[in-house]
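STRUCTURE:
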């Protein structure tokens, strides 16, 4: 279970609930809004290795130098994973030019000692060949999310067949694989059947299921308990 948080207080809530991955981002700034580095560093220091941490590099155009600099800045906080969004240029206005995204990946350099996760966006029609490009660029993982936070979930914009192909392709390239995008409790069982490495949540964990609201500790526990039950059933 990945839980996205925006500050130290929320990190305490999800750590108490036993989440597997604390993800730091600013939900008030789109899909992958970056938090100030001092906030990220404070959470990393608080977590102190008790669970895995990740942080987003921001909502950036496919420019290798800009993305490289943003990832390096976030990596300096000591977070375990840095997440980089693969947005096609002009995506907010309907642009879907993925050639620039492939070029951007080719222009990225490894960050010594830093693990990286690339984020694709199902509602922006990403080609699955991007998964191969992510692997070839040396990333450690790939996940799919939604870019347009307008009430539609991952399950509304991606078919089960597409998600199965995405997970299989990621695992075939030895990439850690995650699924996220306005997920709710009712999506968990079906998405767990796709066998990703983790499912990511924000809105479902918040008061009123609004991603910009504060976290609801009971909602966090309910989601964690459901995922644990699925894990138990799979083992049995």
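SEQUENCE:
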């Amino acid at each position: 279970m990945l839980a996205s948080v925006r500050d130290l207080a929320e990190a305490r809530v999800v750590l108490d609930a036993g989440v597997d991955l604390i993800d730091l981002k600013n939900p008030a700034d789109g899909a992958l809004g970056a938090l100030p580095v001092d906030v990220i560093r404070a959470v990393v220091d608080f977590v102190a290795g008790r669970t895995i941490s990740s942080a987003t590099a921001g909502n950036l155009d496919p420019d290798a130098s800009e993305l490289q600099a943003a990832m390096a800045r976030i990596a300096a906080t000591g977070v375990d994973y840095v997440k980089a969004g693969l947005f096609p240029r002009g995506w907010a206005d309907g642009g879907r030019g993925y050639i620039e995204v492939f070029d951007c990946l080719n222009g990225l350099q490894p960050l010594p000692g830093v693990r990286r996760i690339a984020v694709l966006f199902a509602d922006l029609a990403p080609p699955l060949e991007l998964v191969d490009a992510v692997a070839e660029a040396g990333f450690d993982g790939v996940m799919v999310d939604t870019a347009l936070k307008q009430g539609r979930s991952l399950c509304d914009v991606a078919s089960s067949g597409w998600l199965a192909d995405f997970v299989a392709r990621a695992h075939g390239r030895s990439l850690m694989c995650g699924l996220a995008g306005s997920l709710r409790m009712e999506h968990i069982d079906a998405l767990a059947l796709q066998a990703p490495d983790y499912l990511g949540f924000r809105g479902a964990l918040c008061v009123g299921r609004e991603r910009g609201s504060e976290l609801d500790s009971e909602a966090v526990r309910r989601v964690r308990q459901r995922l644990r039950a699925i894990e138990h059933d799979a083992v049995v």
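REMARK: Residues 62 and 100 are 6 Å apart (CA to CA).
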